[in-house]
Automatic annotation (TrEMBL):
SUPFAM superfamilies linked: Phoshotransferase/anion transport protein
An individual GO BP term: phosphoenolpyruvate-dependent sugar phosphotransferase system
Origin: domain of life: Bacteria
InterPro entries, alphabetized: PTrfase/Anion_transptr, PTS_EIIA_type-2_dom, PTS_Nitro_regul, PTS_SugarTrans_NitroReg
Record-annotated PTS EIIA type-2 domain positions: 5-149
PROSITE patterns: PTS_EIIA_TYPE_2, PTS_EIIA_TYPE_2_HIS
NCBIfam families from the UniProt entry: nitro_reg_IIA (TIGR01419)
Name the record gives this protein: PTS IIA-like nitrogen-regulatory protein PtsN
GO function term, MF aspect, one: protein kinase activator activity
């Protein structure tokens, strides 16, 4: 999965100042709604929240990958945030989160959902890559780091 296809520069943000998991999910919903015709901010928020109720998407090491499937989504879309201050995300290691990659996919395409989640998790499993993402000083730099060749993310 080529992340450039789903993660646009205008959905990539550094130093987002939100204070809770709920606020981060609301911020993501607002960021992604214009990318999905016929899908509202509340549809996105509800999808992300519903997934969080099944279990936290905080995967550990300060990383969360909130995701959801939407009935009316025509294509997958993503957002990438670094947070100004780490927040509690109920992560599996009980550590606060400061790096968030959100993914929304069409409900009728579970295969792309799993493939994309796998590609993102693989990228975020690279400690050097995560360090570079956390130190990005601009939205453009953050986007470039996440979407470039994985071997270059260091």
């Amino acid at each position: 999965m080529n992340l450039k296809e789903i993660l646009s520069p205008d959905c990539t943000r550094v130093s987002v100042a939100e204070s809770s998991k709920k606020r981060v999910l609301e911020y993501i919903s607002q960021l992604l709604a214009p990318k999905l015709a016929g899908v509202s901010k509340s549809d996105i928020f509800d999808s992300l929240l519903q997934r969080e109720r099944l279990g936290s998407t905080g995967i550990g090491l300060g990383i969360a990958i909130p995701h959801g499937r939407l009935e009316n989504a025509g294509q997958p879309v993503a957002a990438l945030l670094t947070l100004a201050e780490p927040i509690d995300f109920d992560a599996i290691d009980n550590q606060p989160v400061d790096l968030v990659f959100a993914l929304l996919v069409p409900k009728d395409n579970p295969e792309i959902h799993l493939k994309t989640l796998s590609a993102v998790a693989e990228r975020l499993n690279n400690k050097d890559c995560c360090r570079s993402l956390r130190h990005a000083s601009s939205d453009a730099e953050l986007h470039e780091l996440m979407t470039q060749d994985p071997a270059l993310c260091s």
